[in-house]
Amino acid sequence: MDDILQIKDLRLEYPNGHAALKRVTFNAKKGEIIAIIGRSGAGKSTLLRCINGLEKPQAGSIRLDGEEIVGMEERQLTNLRRKVGFVWQEYNLIERLSVMSNVLTGRLSYNGRGKNLIGYFDRGHREIAIRNLERVNMLHRASYRADKISGGEKQRVSIARALSQEPTIILADEPVASLDPNLSAIIIGDLARVAREDGTLTIINIHQLDLAAKYVDRMIGLAQGVIVFDGTPAQLDDAAMDRIYNFDKISG
Ligand SMILES: Nc1ncnc2c1ncn2[C@@H]1O[C@H](COP(=O)(O)OP(=O)(O)OP(=O)(O)O)[C@@H](O)[C@H]1O
Ligand SMILES: [Mg+2]
Predict the structure, then answer these.
(1) Which residues pair with 170 in a beta bridge?
(2) 226 with 26: CB under 8 angstroms?
(3) Which residues have CB atoms below 5 A from the ion given as ligand 2?
(4) Ligand 1 near 223 CB (within 6 A)
(5) Is residue 88, in this structure, part of any structural domain at all?
(6) C-alpha distance from residue 7 to each of 48, 55, 63, 97, 179 (Å)
(7) H or E stretch at 221
(8) pLDDT interval class at 200 (50, 70, 90)
(9) Domain end point (choices 166, 197, 216)
(10) Which atom of ligand 1 is nearest to the CA of 222?
(11) How many domains does the chain have?
């Protein structure tokens, strides 16, 4: 089928024995834009980190584009991460490099090691970087050092970098948690727009339900490491909200 991501019975325990994910199961299609919502500590970041191979689940399966991620060796994980665009709350740009150079890091895995060593990118790569900067309205900042631009601009650059990887999936962990409400709406809008244009499966951890409802196709609610809601924004009714946010009151 066209379920490009298939997660089944995923369990992740941290070394202290805390089970952050318990039998998490869901599939996602190419082009879907999904918000993961839930209280602090629900397991949202842990889930994204598992898909990126940064955490090692004890049980279950994650198949991305037909490849099993759980149990992958480091060398294979390096290959996997080429296909996974990650957008972090704290941007993770290389501050002393230009905006353009930061976006070009999204092309590193396509460029060849020798050229990377001397910082040379073929014209095709530079064109991809320029096009993606244009798409998030940041081309006018291409030559600025990354530490000289605002938070909202940094997040646009990080989106352009992720796009330049031509990823199979984009994972965004609270991409607008450091930004004001107006800017948050613009950035989530930008991310959703470019993801739709490319048909790239995108999963966004987000606390702002209004933004999620406006821009995503589907919401997955996590509570204490368990999926307690999976549906469209319109299906997120009071009962679902209670399951996601007030589970301790319900269970007593
Ligand atoms: N390295 C770790 N070692 C032990 N426990 C951890 C570790 N990282 C996270 N946890 C715990 O696992 C649970 C899930 O954490 P996670 O960061 O995935 O939550 P989250 O939903 O992303 O929360 P937030 O909304 O605050 O970002 C929490 O109870 C957290 O304290
Ligand atoms: Mg988190």
Answers:
(1) 85, 202
(2) no
(3) 44-45
(4) no
(5) no
(6) 12, 14, 6, 37, 31
(7) strand 218-223
(8) very high
(9) 166
(10) 21
(11) 2
Residues 177-189 pLDDT 10s? 999 999 999 999 9
> Which residue CA neighbors atom 28 of ligand 1 most closely?
41
CB atoms closer than 10 angstroms to residue 186: 16
| pTM of the full structure | 0.95
What is the 49 CA–ligand 2 centroid distance (Å)? 10
Structural domain for 250, as ranges: 31-56+68-83+167-252
Q: Each residue of 71-93: pLDDT tens digit?
A: 999 999 999 999 999 999 999 99
Does residue 76 sit in the same domain as residue 182? yes
Last residue of a domain, one of 117, 147, 166: 166
Q: What is the mean pLDDT of residues 118-137?
A: 91
Ligand 1 lined by 38 (C-beta under 6 Å): yes
The alpha carbon of 46 and the centre of ligand 1 are apart by a number of angstroms equal to 6
